[in-house]
Amino acid sequence: MPRFLFIADYAPEGAQAVLAAGGTARRAAIEKMCAGVGGRVETFDFAFGTDDVYSIVELPDARTAAAVALTINGSGVARLRTVVLMTPEEVDAAGQIRPDYRPPTA
Predict the structure, then answer these.
(1) How many CA atoms lie within 13 A of 35 on its CB side?
(2) Consecutive 10-residue runs of the chain (106 residues): their mean pLDDT?
(3) Cβ atoms within 10 A of the Cβ of 32, count?
(4) Cα–Cα distance between 14 and 53 in angstroms, integer?
């Protein structure tokens, strides 16, 4: 199943809600959401600094990941960035594909 890295930044009201309900409640909510669309949470970690949450999730496909991202971003309490993750084997397979590309020249 494809894996995605979710990087979330909370708006002030989102951070307040996490403080009120707790981090484990937030992880449980994300686990429930992912399970509901046929996926699972592999990791879920809070961070401090620029980003608030890093989570690696398995989801059925990119459309499902987009639906999750749109839902979270549409909530207004968090901004989610999504990174598609690839295994080393997938990179090996990609290296066998030879696109016919000509770079632009002046």
Answers:
(1) 6
(2) 98 96 98 98 96 98 98 97 97 96 89
(3) 10
(4) 12
Structure tokens at 42: 């592999």
Q: What crossing angle do the helices spanning 23-36 and 62-74 adopt, rounded to 10°?
A: 140
Report how far residue 5's alpha carbon sits from residue 78's, in angstroms, rounded to the nearest whole number.
15
Pairing, β 53-58 against β 78-85? unpaired
Query: CA 95 → CA 53, 81, 90, 99, 100, distances in Å?
Result: 32, 26, 9, 10, 13
Domain boundaries, the chain: 3-95
Other Cβ atoms less than 10 A from the Cβ of 62: the count is 12
Nearest to 4 by CA among 77, 70, 81: 81
Would you state the CATH architecture of domain 3-95?
A: 2-Layer Sandwich (3.30)
